[in-house]
Design a protein that fits this description.
Elements (H helix, E strand, L loop, with lengths): L4 H6 L20 H9 L2 H5 L2 H15 L4 E2 L15 E4 L3 E4 L6 H6 L10 H13 L4 E6 L1 H10 L7 H9 L1 H25 L3 E6 L7 H7 L1 H9 L7 E5 L6 H7 L3 E3 L6 H8 L4 E3 L11 H15 L5 E2 L12 H21 L1
Parallel strand pairs: 1-4, 4-5, 5-6, 6-7, 7-8, 8-9
Antiparallel strand pairs: 2-3
Helix pairs in contact: 4-6, 6-9, 7-8, 7-9, 8-9, 9-11, 11-12, 14-15
Amino acid sequence: MTEAPFLAACQRLPVSPTPVWFMRQAGRYMPEYRRVRSRHGFLELCRSPDLAAEVTVTAVERLGVDAAILFADILLLLEPLGVGLEYSRNDGPVIHRPVRGPEDVERLPRIDAAAELPYVYEAVRLARKSLRVPLIGFSGAPFTLASYIVEGGGSRHYLHTKTLMYQAPQAWHQLMALLVDNVISYLRRQIEAGAQAVQVFDSWVGCLSPHDYRQFVLPHMKRLFQGLPAHVPTIHFGTGTAGFLELLRDGGGTVIGLDWRVDLAEGWQRVGFDRAIQGNLDPAALLASRDLLFEQARTILDRAGGRPGHIFNLGHGILPQTSVDQVRALVDFVHDYSQAAGKNG
């Protein structure tokens, strides 16, 4: 497994073909997942190690990808903190007891929240037994977790989050420090259970300016990545980060994930060629004709230039409207085209 193409690419070692996996590759677009989901609520599914492992493995078997990502959710770590996390079928995650001021931050329990999630680690162990490709564990990033806690759910402008940052910076840093401690513990436990790489999802961080990222997020991300085992590949992914890719790199990570809003070659140059790169097809391209899909994938592979350290992925998760056959065709195309390009080169 140490010679798996995905793990080799994380370390910027030459591999052919280019490894590929997808965010949300086990999700609503897949009939097998929908059948399981019709019988179980989302949290029930996450809390059932057998089912979570089954969904994780099924996606790999259907798609032929080079890595699995554990079926879970970026917010599970928040449930033990007592903020009233609920997953509604139509509105997504909701926080019933949001944290809006310093007194709310003070009331958060100082516990090892990761210790309250044994079902996640058992799912890791079960999935590893059935997988022939590496397994990726993950967590939401501290900023994204904090934003959910403060906003109480989805947001367009993140006004509550930025108000806390600007008006009570000490409380903000206290909240972030608490979350960093828990994310480190959570990811380390996943690694101990068998995860061979971990990804940190900063799905909402693109709402910040470079100045605010540098002041309110960067120190915490540095501490997070420094707290993880050095021998395990780490993927640092955010959306809307084209304005501060250099800061994302400074935050840490063996691999920097790019969304589709930046050219891959330019993004990699800004990040630095001493890091591997993951990405960065627009998920909506999977809804296009196959000719257009392959054209866009070819452009990304060409922009990677055959340089060791490219992992093909989307710029965010697979959309629910996507055809499984379309995803499988993309996997085959990436493998075939990159292998042929390697031979020609």
